[in-house]
Design brief:
By secondary structure, the chain is of the alpha/beta class. It binds beta-D-glucopyranose. The site of beta-D-glucopyranose has 11 residues, from loops.
Length: 337
């Protein structure tokens, strides 16, 4: 058991036995609000599924809102959750900066806010639960530069509204920049992808291929969705499978592409762990306790107490062991049939 799992286990026990309220009654009184940005990506479908499991296992009511990549909608939905007397609010912001208004509203009601996966900027966030996102970028950068130590690179990054996108890029550039400075690699395109949309990634990749007459040797794609878009563009140039492409999220479609050889790797962030950690923290807050942290991350307003989990590089060599045997993806989704 990892430290945070032990903590969650213990704090759940405390919650069940240690409160002055009768145990069943105290759990019934807790209402968790959850606001997530999208269900259009498999990654976020898994998060929601897992958080629902956590809530169901404890018989705790969880009110869910999906903002569909719209910051104004997310604020309105969170106001709606706050109006329903939630005890703790878990928010994965669509727009890191705009979401500070959500934290202000919650504070007025004394509701603690957990920033889930993505950090809310310039706000008095109570806890940030995520992965080491700079490391995610470093894993991608290290993997692809080992495969392609010289050549023309396309560097795509995530949505500018998402603080994670900046962290992933920072990590990737920690590895790529020295090679670019030495002239070993040439970054022929360096562009953000609006709202992380695969179709935008595809268009950017097509532009890069056209502008360079197909002379591209590597693609740093920040996640599996954008990798899928970039690979579609590469396929138009008959280059799918011949140009290494990174990814992130261990989505089923990406796992298939890795086995087909069109995507090189992905970064696995176990959403089961993330959801368990966030929900455990919410329960602790609800009981008046504290949540486990292992670092702090500055968000422009404060050093936010944070729990950052470990990302893992996946390629065709360890996909079976980690994703299939680890119970994350069914065998047939990875290998077909
Ligand atoms: C998440 C990634 C995800 C991306 C697009 C990021 O904030 O950390 O896992 O691929 O958003 O949804």
């Amino acid at each position: 058991m990892r430290n945070y799992q032990i903590f969650i286990f213990v704090s759940s026990l405390l919650l069940l036995c240690g409160c002055d309220l009768e145990p069943q009654k105290s759990l019934k009184k807790i209402k968790i609000g959850l606001s997530i940005p999208t269900q259009r990506e498999e990654r976020w479908v898994r998060d929601l599924e897992q958080l629902r499991k956590e809530a169901a296992a404890l018989g705790v009511e969880m009110l869910v809102q999906i903002s569909d990549n719209d910051a104004a909608r997310q604020l309105a939905q969170c106001e709606n959750l706050l109006a329903q007397n939630i005890t703790v609010l878990i928010v994965a912001p669509h727009d890191a900066a705009a979401a500070s208004a959500i934290v202000e509203k919650a504070a007025l009601q004394g509701v603690k806010v957990i920033s889930y996966d993505r950090l809310i900027l310039n706000a008095d966030v109570d806890l940030y639960v995520s992965f080491d996102n700079v490391k995610v970028g470093e894993i991608q950068g290290r993997y692809i530069t080992r495969m392609v130590p010289k050549g023309n690179y396309v560097v795509l990054s995530g949505a500018p509204t998402d603080n994670n996108a900046a962290l992933f890029r920072q990590g990737a550039m920690n590895i790529l920049q020295p090679l670019a400075d030495r002239g070993d690699i040439r970054i022929v395109m360096d562009q953000p992808v609006k709202d992380w949309q695969p179709i935008e990634a595809m268009k950017l990749m097509e532009n890069a291929l056209t502008a360079n007459n197909g002379n591209i040797q590597a693609v740093l794609a920040p996640n599996d969705g954008t990798a899928g878009g970039a690979i579609q563009a590469l396929a138009l140039y008959k280059l799918a499978g011949r140009v290494p492409v990174t990814g992130q999220d261990a989505e089923a479609a990406a796992a298939k592409r890795i086995m087909d050889g069109t995507q090189t790797m992905t970064v696995f962030k176990d959403t089961r762990q993330l959801a368990a950690a966030a929900f455990g923290a919410a329960m602790s807050f609800a009981a008046g306790g504290r949540a486990p942290v292992n670092t702090t991350v500055p968000n422009g307003k404060k050093d936010v107490p944070s729990l950052l989990l470990e990302p893992v590089a996946i390629d065709r060599n360890n996909i079976g062991k980690i994703l299939v045997q680890g119970g994350y993806l069914p065998r047939e989704e990875v290998y077909g049939r």
